[in-house]
Amino acid sequence: MGDEDWEAEIIKPHVSSYVPVFEKDRYSSGANGDTFNRTPASSSEMGDGSSRRDHFMRRGFASGRSLGDRDPGESNKRENTSTVGGFGVGKSFGNRGFSNNKFEEGDSSGFWRGFQDRNDSEASGSSRRGGRGSFRGCRGGFGLGSPNSDYEQDEGTQRSGGIFGSRRSALSGAGNGDTFQSRSGSGSGRGGYKGLNEEVITGSGKNSWKSEAEGGEGGDTQGPKVTYIPPPPPEDEDSIFAHYQTGINFDKYDTILVEVSGHDPPPAILTFEEANLCQTLNNNIAKAGYAKLTPVQKYSIPIIQGGRDLMACAQTGSGKTAAFLLPILAHMMRDGITASRFKELQEPECIIVAPTRELINQIYLEARKFSFGTCVRAVVTYGGTQLGHSIRQIVQGCNILCATPGRLMDIIGKEKIGLRQVKYLVLDEADRMLDMGFGPEMKKLISCPGMPSKEQRQTLMFSATFPEEIQRLAGEFLKSNYLFVAVGQVGGACRDVQQTVLQVGQYSKREKLVEILRNIGDERTMVFVETKKKADFIATFLCQEKISTTSIHGDREQREREQALGDFRCGKCPVLVATSVAARGLDIENVQHVINFDLPSTIDEYVHRIGRTGRCGNTGRAISFFDLESDSLLAQPLVKVLSDAQQDVPAWLEEIAFSTYGPAFSGGTRGNVFASVDTRKGKSSLNTAGFSSSQAPNPVDDESWD
Ligand SMILES: Nc1ncnc2c1ncn2[C@@H]1O[C@H](COP(=O)(O)OP(=O)(O)OP(=O)(O)O)[C@@H](O)[C@H]1O
After folding, report:
1. Looking at ligand 1, which atom is closest to the CA of residue 244?
2. pTM for this structure?
3. Domain named Helicase ATP-binding: which ranges (predicted)?
4. If pLDDT is split at 50, 70 and 90, which confidence band does 223 have?
């Protein structure tokens, strides 16, 4: 039974699974789920010492060398991007996972059934709990502002016609409610898309645009009204500028090779002063704790300031967000913007899109931080929250709109946002934004009435991974003379993450997970699994094992997702079980460990997942369970990623990689493609700042989407 079938099992599609916080002391320790007592945890309940586990003893599970053993000159050994060669190409493979897991079925079905029953019967109880902050955790209360009935009338049932009046039915067959997404799905068209996990759409296969990660916020059919209003972020300066410290490897960023390709790139800058930003921005940068530019910032800031389009690829956690926000804000300050004022139709100068709600909220908070004390007003809107609330925020003034794609199109359709003034269009996690899940929606966005043509706007794309075929698609969005910045190897893993791959069969995974988590102690750990149901299941299981755990995935209500993230951020629940909805972009302080309980089916996804640790020069560890039965097609790209990041490669993994016949040797398949450099071959030009190296990329055949 594949993932599709698991989706179909969900009985009440619009009701979130109800597993907000797994508090180990609040359940009875019976062998199955019938005795499981789900108790929404409050801060005080979770704040006792009960979550303490044995301290991490650094033994056993990590076969790789310790971070301290790393060769200090390793960055000098970096191979040129052109050496990617025949690796990094694997086949997408579906039908893995939980449902095929005899072990899980045999040993846990009673547990699971009991657990599921409770989900179904108690799901509505979630609305009784208070909302929590999504960022920097630990704040209580939500809600604000009286509802504006004008806006709310439009929600939930009948979408406004507007310019997109008929788009839903055309795109997805059955429409989708503003607040409802059928999760029963048709089962069609999902298999080949696996690995992008829950952000993939139900319903209409590859042509469907709708994201489960987005929660199905846009659409025309009936569904329960979304009433969730996220708590406003704290307004005090300390909170706005709260940040964590750069790590011991921050300075090593300077040794990473950077390649800039495209015609006539401006030279990189070496310091913030060289960027000539206004005083307010400089103050904000200092208050944010930024003393030194990261490589992607050194290159991207002058390129954006020079008015060029940009596709930038740099490792996870290396400061891509500021790389686009700072020059955009600098331009806005220089050119002058329309000061925020109430208007029914707002015309932002900048639109930023990102694939998940939590990520776009994080970007918004960064935008708010850097624009602090200026007249630039940033607003965020994302699915799973009350549309009327978003609109009320927007109409008060909006220079920078941060949005998830579905919600953005809804707001445009409601004619609350006009596009005529758009000067900057930013696609964060751009490869994800352009793939089959979001690509159609992005195309609609750029062909919306009023949207300036690509010649008239500046389009900026950022990601840590950029498969070649996505680069080619991106051409439609970018001016032909766009610049491509590759910091290190495109799609390469962050070297500050010590990667360990363990051979663990399905039947042993849970035991191994518990062993590792007990050794880790209270250090913050993200555990990635492949399906939403499995996320709930594993989180519940860990709770039974007295390990304080919460979970985040696309079947949870937004309130629950934000609460889970808040509890994880503030350390109340040091373990977060997540699907790939949390794989990209999330910047959470002190995540020391990532565990791939299930490996993803694409290597890019792996790179993003492990990038939740080892950020901003800090070190981290990633442990992946490699199941011979289901993961062998990932062996080749995994060996490539490990060796490029100068990690130990287990001999057994190498053996599998070389014995597995895979598309690595036949041109590649979507998903595991490892882009080497700018796909516009032969146009490479070295930048002048002394960091670069260049080599003509190997030609790679065009691939079709199918
Ligand atoms: N120049 C800098 N000095 C100090 N800290 C920085 C600097 N640039 C960024 N940071 C911090 O580094 C962290 C990671 O930055 P960011 O989230 O932008 O990374 P990213 O490259 O977008 O990662 P991902 O690929 O995972 O999305 C953030 O906490 C950010 O505030």
Report:
1. 29
2. 0.72
3. 301-484
4. low
